[in-house]
Amino acid sequence: MTYVPDSSRYAAMQYRRCGNSGVMLPILSLGLWHNFGAITPFETQQAMLRTAFDHGITHFDLANNYGPPYGEAERNFGLHMERDFRPYRDELFISTKAGYDMWPGPYGDHGSRKYLMASIDQSLKRMKLDYVDVFYHHRPDPDTPIEETMGALDQIVRSGKALYVGISNYGPEQARAAIKELKRLGTPCLIHQPNYSMLNRWIEDGLTDVLREEKVGCICFAPLANGLLTGKYLDGIPADSRMAKDSRYLKPAALTDENLNKIRALKDIAEARGQKLHHLALQWVLRDEVVTTALIGASRPEQIVDNLSILDAPALTQEELEQIENILRG
């Protein structure tokens, strides 16, 4: 059956301006990291993408090596584009990235012009797109001159293969240097994608200052600390959890007494607000509008709808923010 999006899809979603650009992003964006590869049924992927768009989530975030296997999330997304989203391409904001290992040999990793130029071509082919809205360098490469990496991003925009460029996982000084070089080239940095959550606050040690000063947007990934801030691990490791099935990105070592005590205390605050813990965690990372959008993952469409309940939640009060700060500072 032909997909027809919900006609009221933009009614409830909130959008924020991305840095100093004309781009508005939904406060929640959908990441296609773990659950759009070969391990997830195509119909489940389709239901998640349709649900997201039906609720005003216009930004879908990918990378060349998302899967598993590498490239599979982009290939699947290309099929979803053909089946459902081609008529709505101009309503979508699609990103992909390169910077981690993708193919064997010296040219399938890091930040060389060779790798980035080859990667954008491969990604566009897999996704069946003429261009992406944002192309990121996925991580800093200390062995490649910043001029080469940023020069490749600039060329990708000038060739029409991306409308904007971004960086991900760059520290404050690395980000400032990249932003400065892109500005010199005439292709401003639109956005930075860092890991940020209540349990991982590294961006507050200088990076948010850089982004604010340079008027660059921020899309935080892992705002739920890869599931820790859902509270599902408070009583052990569930058999169907990510930690049990694939602990590469969330290891049992994260279940320290310190973290578990913080999570329990945060859960109490959430419950006092009539919320679930993960809703509080999402609202918290969005408390400062230097964060343009929070990147959520999902394994089923109901999780997306559940996260969207933050749109109706009351703002965090100063007293609640202070209580949270006291918990996190321990």
Descriptive overview:
The protein has 330 residues and is α/β, with parallel strands linked by helices. It has a single domain (15-233, 278-316), classed as TIM Barrel (Alpha-Beta Barrel). Helix content is 38%, strand content 14%. The protein has eleven helices and ten strands. The chain has helices spanning 42-54, 72-85, 113-127, 146-158, 172-185, 207-214, 242-245, 257-272, 277-285, 301-307, 318-329, and strands spanning 15-17, 24-26, 28-31, 59-61, 93-98, 132-137, 162-168, 189-193, 217-220, 293-296. The strands form two sheets. Strands 3-4-5-6-7-8-9-10 form an eight-stranded parallel beta barrel, surrounded by four helices. The chain has a two-stranded antiparallel ribbon with strand order 1-2. Helix 4 packs across helix 5 (172-185) and helix 8 runs antiparallel to helix 11. It is globular. The termini are far apart.
Secondary-structure arrangement, i.e. CATH architecture:
Alpha-Beta Barrel
What helical percentage do the residues reach? 25-40%
Continuous helix count: 11
Strand content: 5-15%
CATH class: Alpha Beta
Give the radius of gyration: 19 Å
CATH superfamily: NADP-dependent oxidoreductase domain
- The ordered string of helix (H) and strand (E) elements is EEEHEHEHEHEHEHEHHHEHH
Overall pLDDT level: 95
Q: What is the CA-CA span between the terminal residues?
A: 53 Å
Structural class: alpha/beta
- CATH-defined fold name: TIM Barrel
Strand order of the biggest β-sheet = 3-4-5-6-7-8-9-10
Give a quick rundown of the structure.
The chain has 11 helices and 10 strands. The protein is of the alpha/beta class and 330 residues long.
